[in-house]
Specification:
rod-shaped; mainly alpha
């Protein structure tokens, strides 16, 4: 009994094996033949195999004779057409010939794909299946070649100049790029012209670009659909991505995009890097708004109806290039911070911020998620770099401890640099509001100086300046506080107190003029302008009092005896001595101030008038009161060294850059 049960189990196991091998009839029959040599009962299983074969044939949708006839026609269309075009007529592609072979070729391919599906239910007709598979493989290879050929032949190159113009438009005289660069205003350079920190202008223009003629795109889509249906989606995607990636790279190179490593960028001199940034800004705008957008649209059309293949192809061809562009921005963001870089960093931040929604839209698929995150991260790093550079600018103002007085008490290069810097910060006011936030400026100890402007700004009472300004205005006005503190220290470098006041007058007046006659007036407010205008008047008045003190003292008449009780000879001596003292004081004053400068014409005239209002009437009064002594005295007449016209001429020449004519006049004064 036990033996019988064991044999039954063996037979049952063999039946399961034969059933499992039923789809491969030849293998099943071979297995049964081998098992029959051990036990005759296995031979009875051959009908099972035959039954499987019969049921398979019954499941075919068409008679096998029709399958063979259709396959003959397919082979003739696919293989023979491909072979005919593979020789000397290779240049006449199927989709390029005038015989309209593309339609029949696709029909044949679709037919052979249907046969493969039909014949795959059984390997009983292995030869038919192999013939169909060979025809299908040949068709797929031919379709891929046709696809590549069409992409290469019909891909259109770009005109970089027209694309740049379409996005940016022609520059005008008001564009930032036409202005002098910020580094030309760096402390230590004293120029006559205005130095202005600049950056690129931004444009939201857009442009459409056809990378492939529209009439060709449907044919590409037909081929792509046919190959994806035939199980060759990866092959067609790789072919498309490879060719379009090459074209994309060529277009970006024409546009001016360079592949630069982070190490190369960080070692590059700023003058060279600045030009690279300008080019990068233009390239990023064109590449995102036009080129990458066009590539995305083309991928959509070529792979329309093919699900994820569009995203896969576009990601493969475009990701590397957009990430390369973004890496330049990251390299700038992590490079050494210095004030002259701020405007270019802000330009980069603004343009990337403007383009971020476009980037997120173009690279919206899951396959491009790293592009979206990298763009956001780069924008964040540029923002951090801008904030750090702004702080570095503050530190640069505080650290400028040059010990050489500016010639003539003129405008210090630091003043020009800071005020022009601030002026063009205003162009980025919206961006700076986002970056600097709502923090108020604290009050650090500034070089040990006790400046009223600093105290007014950071005072704790209700009249403090910072409490009445917007957060951005507080940040910017604080820069002028730092500047005033620095200028106060530099004024002490002048040995003559009068020249120190002239220096402060020139520099604070320059600050007021820059604010008053620009958009900064709305940011700083009327109170700031009034206060600093008052400071200029105070410095002017103090300069006149200190610089001309000795001269004006000679014009006082209190000490002269005018009652006539003193003899004429004594009176002549007093008058003579007084004129000598005046001449000496005036000579000394004009000699000391011969190189002093007031660059602003209006301020210079105001100062000349202020001196003239006290000097000319006093000197005229002196000459009139003692006219008899001056004209009749033997020696007093020689003591009248200057006429009223001489003094008026000298005052007109005061505080002007010395010319030969002025030098000659002053030499004539000194020899009279």
């Amino acid at each position: 009994m036990a033996v019988t049960d064991g044999e039954d189990r063996v037979i049952a196991a063999a039946q399961q094996i034969v059933k499992a091998l039923g789809s491969n009839e030849n293998l099943a029959e071979d297995m049964l033949r081998i098992l029959s040599t051990f036990d005759d009962r296995f031979s009875s299983m051959n009908p099972m195999v035959r039954s499987n074969r019969e049921s398979t044939l019954a499941s075919l949708p068409v008679p096998i004779s029709d399958v063979e006839k259709t396959l003959d026609g397919v082979e003739e269309t696919v293989i023979k057409l491909d072979a005919a075009l593979s020789d000397s007529t290779r240049h006449s592609m199927i989709w390029g010939c005038e015989r309209g072979g593309s339609g029949s070729f696709l029909q044949a391919v679709n037919a052979v794909q249907g046969m493969l599906s039909t014949l795959s239910v059984s390997l009983a007709y292995r030869s038919l299946f192999e013939r169909a598979r060979n025809a299908h493989q040949s068709a797929m290879a031919r379709l891929e070649e046709e696809f590549k050929h069409m992409l290469v032949v019909h891909s259109q190159s770009i005109d970089p100049k027209s694309l740049l113009d379409s996005v940016s438009g022609p520059f005008t005289s008001n564009d930032r790029d036409d202005r002098p660069e910020v580094e030309s205003c760096s402390p230590g350079r004293d120029e006559q012209g205005e130095c202005i920190p600049v950056a690129e202008s931004n444009s939201n223009a857009n442009s459409d670009l056809e990378l492939i003629p529209p009439k060709v795109v449907p044919d590409l889509n037909d081929i792509a659909k046919c190959m994806v249906a035939g199980g060759c989606g990866r092959e067609i995607c790789q072919a498309y991505a490879s060719l379009r990636r090459t074209m994309l790279e060529q277009n970006l190179i024409k546009l001016g995009v360079e592949k630069l490593s982070v190490e190369v960028i960080q070692k590059m001199p700023w003058e060279m890097l600045e030009n690279k940034i300008k080019r990068w800004i233009q390239c990023l705008k064109v590449s995102v708004r036009v080129i990458f957008s066009a590539e995305g649209k083309l991928s959509d059309k070529v792979f329309v109806g093919l699900g994820p293949w569009r995203e896969t192809c576009f990601a493969d061809l475009a990701k590397g290039h957009i990430l390369q562009l973004l890496s330049f921005g990251e390299a700038i963001a992590i490079s050494r911070q210095s004030p002259e870089k701020l405007f270019k960093i802000l330009d980069m931040y603004e343009i990337l911020g403007d383009l971020l929604p476009v980037i997120n839209s173009i690279f919206a698929s899951e396959a491009c998620s790293n592009v979206r995150s990298e763009a956001s991260d780069t924008l964040m790093r540029l923002g951090e770099a801008a904030r750090g550079t702004f702080t570095e600018f503050e530190n640069a103002i505080k650290r400028d401890t040059s010990k050489t007085p500016v010639f003539g008490g003129s405008i210090h290069p630091l003043t020009r640099y800071v005020m022009n810097y601030i002026r063009f910060l205003f162009e980025y006011s919206n961006t700076l509001k986002r970056l600097l936030g709502d923090r108020k400026r604290d009050a650090p100890i500034l070089m040990g100086m006790d400046m009223s402007s600093k105290q007014d700004f950071v005072g704790e009472d209700e009249n403090s300046v910072a409490d009445h300004l917007s957060p951005l205005a507080a940040q910017v006005v604080w820069l002028t506080v730092l500047l005033e503190c620095n200028l106060d220290g530099k004024s002490k470098l002048y040995k003559d107190p009068a020249q120190a006041y002239l220096f402060l007058m020139n520099n604070v007046h320059y600050m007021v003029k820059k604010v008053k006659h620009s958009e900064l007036a709305t940011l700083f407010g009327e109170d700031w302008i009034k206060k600093h205008t008052g400071q200029v008047r105070q410095y002017t008045t103090t300069y006149v009092r200190v610089a001309w003190k000795k001269v004006f003292a000679c014009l006082k008449e209190e000490e002269l005896n005018m009652n006539g009780s003193v003899s004429g000879s004594v009176s002549r001596v007093v008058v003579k001595e007084r004129l000598k003292i005046f001449n000496s004081a005036f000579d000394e004053t004009q000699k000391i101030q011969s190189t002093w400068v007031v660059p602003d014409p209006e301020l210079r005239q105001e100062l000349q008038n202020l001196v003239s209002e006290k000097l000319i009437p006093g000197y005229r009064s002196l000459l009139c009161r003692f006219q008899n002594y001056v004209e009749s005295g033997k020696h007093c007449k020689k003591c009248k060294k200057y006429s009223l016209e001489d003094l008026e001429g000298y005052l007109l020449d005061m505080f002007v850059v010395t010319s030969e004519s002025v030098r000659a006049r002053r030499r004539s004064f000194s020899t009279v």
